[in-house]
Amino acid sequence: MSKPHYTIAVSGLNNIDSPGPGMPVIRALKEAESFTTRIIGLSYDSFEPGLYMNEWVDYTYQLPFPSAGQEILMNRLRQIQNIEKIDVLIPNFDAELFSFIRLSNRLDKELGIKTILPEEQAFEERHKANLSAWGQKHNIQVPPGTMIHSIYEIPAVAAQYGYPLVIKGKYYEAGIAYSYDQAVNWFHKISAKWGLPIILQKFVTGTEVNITALGDGNGQMIGAVPMRKQVITDKGKAWAGVTLEDEKMMDFARHLFKETRWKGPCELEMIRTKEGALYLIELNPRFPAWVYLAVGSGQNHPEALVNMAMGNTVKPMDTYDIGKMFIRYSWDMIVNMKDFEQISVHGEAGKNKKEN
Amino acid sequence: MKIRNNIALSDSGFIFDPSTGDSFSLNPIGLEILRMLKSGKDKSFILTYMVDTYQTDMETAEKDYDDFMGMLTQFHLLQEK
Amino acid sequence: MATQRLQYERPLIQRVNTGILNKFGTRTEYAPFTHIDGVSVKSLISEFGSPLFVLSEKNIREKYQEANRAFKTRYPKVQFAWSYKTNYINAVCNIFHQEGSWAEVVSGFEYQKALKNGVPGNKIIFNGPDKTDEEITLAIQNKSPLHIDHLDELYRVTEIATELNIRPEVAIRVNMDTGIYPMWDRFGFNYENGQAWDAINKIILSDKLELTGLHCHIGTFMLSPSAYAVAASKMSDLAIGVLQKHNIKIKYIDMGGGFASRNTLKGAYLQGVDTSPSFDQFAEAICTAILNAGFHKDDLPLLILETGRALVDEAGYLLGSVISNKRLSDGRRATIMDFGVNVLFTAFWYDHKITPAQEFSHYTEDTVMYGPLCMNIDVVRETCTLPPLKKGDHVVVHTVGAYNMTQWMQFISLRPPVILIDRNGKPQIIRKRETIQSIEMEEILPAQLKDFKL
To answer: Between residues 20 and 59 of chain B, which touch chain A (CB distance below 8 Å)?
Structure first.
């Protein structure tokens, strides 16, 4: 029997030193065993490397920035869908996820484009600022945290958690304070950049471990591969990592999917303490850039996601190769000015344009 | 005023400045003016052409031309005198 | 004969990737907006001048009905009260009154307006921290629900009621922690520290006032329905506590206003249109919290809502014209409009959506948009992507129906007229363009200053 052929749109083609997950996802899809693909890249910037990687991306269209609004995004996708027949869309940029979650029903009904994304409520609840409440609700161990709006709230929280204390911004940046004065300093530094509230979190020390996983939205974990970063770049991104054998981490992940009925891909960032306790410190609602390690160790999560989206039966994957490593490298492509001009002026480019 | 010789002009309105590595994008009227400048046409020729070809008056055309030249100067695309 | 000349457009050049000049960047964001309820912007400006505020009666009524439906399908007893400070042009107030809204006022001036519009005294809710003795007296005589803000007011209302020998119906305003910031604890009595209970006990024990309601207003431009759920459940707890402790049934819970409109706050990454919660989401949060609080089904209090902004913002448009184009010293484009922050006060906190009112090609340019005032603060948009506008071109500023026609300033120039497009698509003037007489009417020039020689 011949394999089905799907047209799949993927964003996050920024395969730079702090890479987006787009290219690894595309690589996984190209290696899928259950289908063949035409890959449509979705880009925001003429400098995204994926735009020029024609052996992986068949054709790319530029999208308006998420800040332009959902109606404009919808119009652009309608325009693209008039040319391509996209079956599944996999968004990989943090900033665009909210818009795609909001539009997912309309994409399916009006354009016939399928997505596998978390529910809006789940997406909102796992935000950094709400993580503590979210953990309590679902009985998931997260470091205790409290949102504050003024330095006058620090002493009471510090009395509860003790020093050192982690001081986090709403979106980014964190510091560790060993005294009240340091806490005040961090408060001002981070709030000046990211605004209020500030999150005070109990300091949990240990080894950072991560899981890339996929949930079916009904409490079932479709796949999960745990990994520890072996070397990181100066931006804290993984440079090399290795798959782990850790039943406790897998149980943690299974419990999370069962409790939250998380739908779609995610990355769980966790701390394992000296005593072996696991704390979830962040849940990223998309594939991580290292998702190809899962493929390399036997679980093709992007392929499973596409099959879920297409309504095919997807069996949970419960084995993977332990001790598989990834080592990331960079590569300088040579690009002609003509190709840069093509995407900059026409908003679409690629070697494999669809002829109607 | 002349546009620098090494500036590459493409039909799509994309221009590349090889001496700075900057690239720019133009609308069709901007491209037309740049082409005329490149072929050595002077201000009064270009303005007359604009008024003959487009629904505009001399005053508007001149104001916009001067503004456009200001941008070309700012982007260092004109020949030094 | 000369051949037909082509459409002109200003020549543009832009650095690639500083604002991509291709048609897929921001093109449709600023698609021309040429008609309001079927009436062309061009004809409105030629008939009534520029700048010009335009309100859509159709939109106001639709929004009201949408909000009303959202709450009434979830809760049996709902009453809206039109927040006068949001827009107190009489025509606007009366649309809401025709739809069934009471009035919600925060000053003697607004109170008078509501009375003159014909709102019965017992349907004018009197809020705010500043009520004079005369105003309190009038409100008591008219049986208007008085919402008490602080202890000094509580004592004064008690004294005046005693003198008048009337037992007025009052509510207290309660502030509380709903998990949002800033917490509006400057108004009313605090829930968490017991001030609210203290005020309730004082009212009930003195027996000079009848405690009929509880009022709160947790903030403004609220994007989080869950904060209203917290507030509604705290308000319900208080009401049930009053019943248990004093055997007094609270007749109404007034949840105030504060629902966000579809504007985009400065600094927000996503468009307000995409992120503002719907009336259904607010209604679900509030109604569920009250229904689950534990009231006996016959004792459910009336739910009052003082929503202003979310009901009227989208109905309002400001039409204006380009005075001039400029190039700033750093090469940025600047566009000077004939309206500024004097009439568009909300430009201080929103990035208002601004669209051209005529067709253009897909080429756009980033521009700073300035008002006409000879004041550096007069900035309508710090940056805005628009087609190459020329002198005299018209633009439409969207979602300006709330707080502009009350907070506008008569500063440097006179305020523009306000037009209402009625349900038949007919434009009607509801506030005339100000004249020099409207301003000088209140001035008195002393005799010794009448003459001078230059």
So the answer is: 23, 25
Superfamily of domain C27-54+316-433: Lyase, Ornithine Decarboxylase; Chain A, domain 1 (2.40.37.10)
Contacts of A292 (CB under 8 A, 6+ apart): A24, A27, A28, A326
Q: Is the ipTM of this complex over 0.90?
A: yes
Phi (first) and psi of residue C57, to 5 degrees: -60, -40
* DSSP type of residue C304: E
For residues A252-287, b (16+ Cβ closer than 10 Å) or e, as one string? bbbebbeebbbbbbbbbebbbeeeeebbbbebbbbb
B64 close contact with C: CB closer than 8 A: yes
Separation in Å, CA A337 to CA A44, A292, B21, B26: 18, 31, 10, 16
Q: Is B10 on the interface with A (CB under 8 A)?
A: yes
CA proximity to C58, closest of C426, C408, C337, C344: C426
Task: Tell if the CB–CB gap between C13 and B24 is shorter than 8 Å.
Answer: yes
Kindly report, residue by residue over A107-134, the tens digit of the pLDDT. 999 999 999 999 998 998 888 778 888 9
Residue C132: alpha-carbon gap to chain centroid: 25
Distance CA(A244)–CA(A237), nearest Å, equals 18
Nearest CA in chain C to B50: C8
Domains present along chain A, CATH in parentheses:
5-116+332-349 (3.40.50.20), 153-202 (no CATH), 205-327 (3.30.470.20)
Position A288 confidence tier, pLDDT thresholds 50, 70, 90: very high
Q: Regarding beta strands A145-148 and C35-36, do their DSSP bridges make them parallel or antiparallel, or are they unpaired?
A: unpaired
The pLDDT tens digits of the residues spanning C3-60 come to 688 889 899 988 876 444 344 444 445 678 999 999 999 999 999 999 999 999 999 9
Helix (H) or strand (E) holding C327: strand C316-327
Does the pLDDT of residue C1 top 60, yes or no? no
Give per-residue pLDDT as tens, A32-83.
Answer: 999 999 999 999 888 899 999 999 999 999 998 888 889 889 999 999 999 9
User: For C58-313, which CATH class?
Assistant: alpha beta
Say if CB C322 and CB C360 are below 8 A apart. no
